[in-house]
Amino acid sequence: MSIRLLIAAFVVLLPAGVAQAEDAAVPTKLSLICTGSDAVLFAMAPNTLNGRRYGAGMAFGQGRGAAQLEVKVEGEAVRALPPKSSVPLLARGDAEGGWYTLTEVKIEPTQIEGRIRWNLLDRERLRIDRRTGLATFGNFRGACQPVAETQGGVRF
Questions:
Q1: Which residues in the chain come in under a pLDDT of 70?
Q2: Sheet holding 103-107, edge to edge
Q3: Half-sphere exposure (Cβ direction) of 15: Cα atoms closer than 13 Å
Q4: Which of 18, 54, 107, 114 lies most in the core, judged by the most C-beta atoms within 10 Å?
């Protein structure tokens, strides 16, 4: 009889302990800076060889360039300041100082996910792996580091 009572108490208390452990792993306030690279468009002058021009006009291409992404988690709300190279020309104008609020947010112990809706057609998904710090956002790839929010938490 006492063993049944002990097992019943264990079964009842186990989910509460797991929920508390999961809640403790999810931050209520977090600020990250992710440095990496993003796809950028570039223009090149026409081909030249020995001072002679071959072709006319400009040639355009795509390469990778240094970029920075900032992310702020405040409770269940996630905001992002994407690199300028990631923002499409027809992005909606409701960003405050370049910050966009993410939708479809999932904050889990191992990852942070969300989506920015630029306009009716364009959307980008943000994924941050909390174990490795790797972040992906459209063509952006980088590594994230936490940033101190207070003056007492300076790094240098």
A1: 1-27, 44-59, 93-95, 149-156
A2: 100-101, 77-81, 59-74, 29-44, 140-146, 134-137, 123-129, 111-117, 103-107
A3: 3
A4: 114
Q: How far apart are CA 73 and CA 79, in angstroms?
A: 7
Q: What angle do CA 78, 80, 81 make, to 5 degrees?
A: 160
Residues 59-87 as b/e (b if ≥16 CB within 10 A, e otherwise) read eeeeeeeebebbbbbeeeebbbbbbebbb
Beta carbons within 8 Å of 22's beta carbon, 6+ residues apart: 109
Question: Residue 140: which region, alpha, beta or left (left: phi > 0; alpha: psi -120 to 50)?
Answer: beta
Six-digit token string for 45: 């002058």
Amino acid 121: pLDDT: 82
With a CB cutoff of 8 Å and minimum separation 6, the contacts of 57 are: 46
Token output for 66: 């240094």
pLDDT (0 to 100) of residue 93: 62
- Cβ within 8 Å of residue 6, ≥6 positions away: none
